[in-house]
Amino acid sequence: MNGEAAAPMVGAPMVEAKALVKRFGDVEAVRGIDVQVRTGEAFGFLGPNGAGKSSTMRMIASTSPRSDGDLRVLGMDPDVDGPRIRARLGSVPQQDTLDTELTLRQNLQIYGRYFGMSRADVRRKATELMEFAQLSERADGLVDALSGGMKRRLTIARSLVNDPDLLLLDEPTTGLDPQARHMLWDRLFRLKAGGVTLIITSHYMDEVEQLCDRLVVMDDGRIVAEGSPSELIARYSTREVLELRFAPGEQGGIAARVAEFGERVEELPDRVLVYTGDGERALEQVHGRDVRPVSSLVRRSTLEDVFLRLTGRTLVD
């Protein structure tokens, strides 16, 4: 690995934040959060746009100074050791920053030179990363010709040029189609299996459930819950959810009529959610009450339901 500092001790946290604050003028984007990311895990920040996820990520990346609180990354203080920290990080920003007029191979080789790698090393590393990203056949083509999913894979490949100890991914699959998202997830699974610590921000519940060992749920700059995906779902939701959808103007009063069939009921603009341990049984009871939705769906609880329980709104509000 690059950088002068030694790797963190086994068991020591990769990232540790206490009462971390980020202000932009009078706006407090991050409001005194405590976070610990363990070596070798995939850790997630889940929340809607504006929750403070990206601001937190930039502080961890040592590209934005903290306003208050304590922060250690790889055992170092970003205010003092920013260059040494950045030498051992990989970063995947929300928006691709590739040079579209260069080839894929040139993008990787030029980036590697920023870390002081020799020409021979960057050539070898570029070939290795093209294979990892499944882009070898396009290595000498221009970036401008790539699809969105291919560009994201190239951006991740570029972030690995310096063999980072810690990889930061800010909304890595925003705007991608399902096939491209799943291919990207596969690459991230492989990285984690290879020992790379991942920190991922996302507002996609399925992404965080798939990729993360642990996560925090953020809302309005604060952490409102922490745990593994399964722990959070078990703690804040039921095993199943019954979704009931009605024609426009016919949903009024439905929540009160079906409330007794679940542990709790949530009424959203486009549907009523009944939280229960047995969705099919609840649906039978709803029909027995002569409630006739246009459509119904029984599904397992997700992190979206956790967020709704904690904040009273959905992740896409």
Quick description:
The chain is built from eleven helices and 13 strands.
Question: Describe it for me?
Answer:
The protein has two domains: 13-227, P-loop containing nucleotide triphosphate hydrolases (Rossmann fold, 3-Layer(aba) Sandwich), CATH 3.40.50; 238-300, YebC, transcriptional regulation domain (Alpha-Beta Plaits, 2-Layer Sandwich). Helix content is 34%, strand content 27%. It is built from eleven helices and 13 strands. α6 links the parallel β6 and β7. The radius of gyration is 22 Å and the shape is globular. Mean pLDDT is 92; it is low at 1-10.
Shape: globular
- Whole-number count of domains: 2
* Strand tally: 13
> What value does the Rg take, in angstroms?
22 Å
Mean pLDDT: 92
Strand content: 25-35%
Structural class: alpha/beta
pLDDT < 50 runs, ≥5 residues: 1-10
CATH-assigned homologous superfamily of the largest domain:
P-loop containing nucleotide triphosphate hydrolases
CATH architecture of the largest domain: 3-Layer(aba) Sandwich
